[in-house]
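To the wet lab folks,

You asked to see what we're planning to order before we commit. Fair enough. Below is the target structure as tokens, and below that is the sequence we designed to fit it. If anything looks off to you, flag it before the synthesis order goes out.
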């Protein structure tokens, strides 16, 4: 059916069916250019039924996406849920898009965990607490939810480690 007129199975619009080349790329039959489709949550979850994210129109007219997992609302252009990190598009399944590679969140968790048994050292739990606050701030500003749990866990472990250090140096 390549290069013929057809109908999109997802949205029903009339389209010219692209050509699939030997490298797996889609080629526009008219311009002979490689097509890079913009990710769209409706197309990504077309066959998901009840598990698909819902597109909601706000009173202002703006569209948002409601996550089927946690019911949080994200912007229409989001690749992932800002609250739980569930991917809305194929691009949302990559590590970079999901936000789990936030270095401050990871460092906070690692230093917080290390800081608890090494409570006599103030440096590791203090850095875990600081990195957790910075990472949580970055995750909140970016609107993505992934990494938030690591930052919170790092903050909690850092506070526990500082409590152990306080007991070790002052109260003991």
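Sequence we intend to order:
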């Amino acid at each position: 059916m390549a290069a013929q007129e057809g109908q999109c199975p997802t949205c029903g619009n009339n389209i010219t069916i692209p050509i699939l080349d030997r490298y797996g790329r889609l080629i526009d039959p008219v311009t002979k250019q490689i097509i890079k489709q913009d990710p769209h949550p409706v197309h990504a979850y077309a066959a998901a039924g009840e598990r698909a994210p819902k597109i909601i129109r706000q009173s202002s007219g703006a569209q948002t996406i409601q996550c089927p997992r946690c019911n949080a609302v994200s912007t229409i252009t989001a690749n992932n849920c800002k609250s739980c990190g569930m991917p809305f598009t194929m691009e949302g399944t990559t590590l970079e898009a999901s936000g789990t590679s936030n270095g401050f969140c990871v460092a906070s968790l690692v230093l917080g965990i290390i800081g608890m048994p090494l409570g006599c050292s103030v440096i590791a739990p203090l850095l875990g607490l600081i990195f957790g606050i910075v990472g949580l701030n970055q995750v909140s500003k970016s609107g993505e939810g992934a990494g938030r749990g690591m930052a919170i866990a790092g903050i909690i472990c850092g506070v526990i480690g500082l409590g152990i250090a306080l007991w070790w140096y002052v109260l003991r």
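Structural context that might help your review: Residues 96-100 have pLDDT under 50 and may be disordered. Residues 148-171 form the longest helix (24 residues).

Thanks,
Computational group
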